[in-house]
Amino acid sequence: MGRSPRRPGGERPKAALPAEWTRLLAGLSVAFQPIVQMRTGRCHGMEALLRGLERSPFASPNDLLDAACMQGLLAEVECALHGKAVAAFRALDNWPDAKLFLNIDARVVGVAGSPWLAPFALDGGTPDPRLTVSLEISERRELRPDHSIEQAIDRYRQAGIGVALDDFGVGFAGLRLLYESKPDYLKIDRYFIDGIDQDTRKRAIAHALVGYAHALGILIIAEGVETEKEFYTCRDLGCDFAQGYLIARPSLELHAVPERYGIVEELNRRDRRKPNEARLRLSEVIERQPPLAVNSPKTELLDYFRGDNSPSIAPIVDRQQRPLGLIRERDLKRFVYSRFGSELLRNKGLGDTLLDLVVKSPVCDISTPLDQVIEAFSAEEASDGIIIIEGGEYAGFLSSGALIRLVHERNLAMAADQNPLTRLPGNAAIVRHIERALQEQDRKHVLAYLDFDNFKPFNDRFGFRQGDRAILMFSERLKAWASGNGGFAGHIGGDDFFVALSGAAEEDALARVADLVAQFRSDAESLYDAEAREAGCFEGKDRYGAVRRFPLLSASGVVVVIAPGPHRLTSDAINTAIAGHKAIAKESPDKLCTVHLPPSLSPPPPSAGGGLGGGGGGTPQH
Q1: DSSP string, 286-308
Q2: Over the stretch 203-218, which tens digit does the pLDDT of each residue have?
Q3: Assessment of whether the complete model's pTM goes beyond 0.70
Q4: How many Cβ atoms sit within 10 Å of the Cβ of residue 456?
């Protein structure tokens, strides 16, 4: 089918759809599913979803769009569907307070002449100032290589339309699309959210995505949140918004856009965990600098920056208090210090909104761990500071000076609580980690105490420098293990170490600890000569001074599994359980002994070391 001629400016006149397509689309309906702020429950927006396909020849929206594409009608069908969604959204009560999220086929993005603006305009063709729209570009469609995504996104933004990347992580474009589109939102696909509370690899990927996106000023939406544990995990990883059946299913019967969703407020009320240190510290140091609305007259910038004590940057927010970036005073010097600055800023040729002057800024949630805040600050765009959000809304600004002070405090604290040899966290940090784990009673925790077998005769036989090499070798393994599994590693002292993993499936967590122990046994062989490796042992003196043969160096450990649910366990109980089972671990073929706490009703078997040691208890399993 031939294309219609284009109007000046690149937009085609709206083509009439064939009658069969008009009838087909008229029989479809639009459902809405909310996108909600994770820390407040406030409704941020509604995603429009197509329903009624069972009355059509198509099994899915993708099938419908594929058929339209084959007939050369993809842009026209997409435009008609958007018009249908906008009309249904406008029919709801209270809709100006929420954003409308619309899916757009990636094959339409950037195609010259696509009538992308028409559905969002008023009858006169002018943009509707009350309608805030974000287009969701799905990663599931392969992008055309012969057009510029950046130019298309720029045109959307000039028209006040936001951009979200949908289904991120499971499609074709991946990081390329993230780089080129510079989106406002990133929607992590349901594949990575499903069971994220039990899957350390999914948590590690989501953690990296959140950190990267926030460093670029992009907000995160977790798609398909269906359980309370998924909600808490996504929230604690730093996701800003959630969407899924736990909050609300797509509805065809929606009559009004709710201001808030009680389920989210209730989940946050029921979370009795103490606010993390980062949240408390950031609350103390951020500047509660008032933002400017993006639709403010440009002349207000002159007043904002006027005065000896005026700030050097202005945070810019949209109608929903979502941060869009910064305007820097230094970029306006030619206006601020000009006799005719006010007249120049009124010049329409320089742009009609503050958005033309906004530069992107890193964004961090007020609960973001300080390590992630510092990582965001390392981005080139963070030279002015970082915007801090709470519940997805602007909360304040962390200046570069305040962040440098935080970095200094953190470095001093880490230096005071690090093992000087391995640079791993020391005893105080380990105790804090155990206490936090005991407070989080909705998740399973795996805590492991690890030490070397026969380390004293090895150290005496080969010298302290070789002993230090063994300790450093194991510590590097621990660091890589903790980083790759989203866990924690610490150095108690000497050849005593601690590792922990929270929220993982027990079988998976135990396998990872066992793999760590097995890897060290293999690594340690490099510390011996060929003769000792061949013999599988070395000669050394025991504690009584007698010379005998000892096996090659290995590590063993007691693994404490804390089941989710209410309990009154303390860190002393953990230490007692570990001490009572060390001898069992060293005699075990795999060098591990697993203890379940709280203990089961069945009595534990006696330990090889003469009992459970002070009644620490548990159910050991070899």
Answers
A1: SB-PPPEETTS-TTHHHHHT-ST
A2: 888 988 888 888 778 8
A3: no
A4: 16
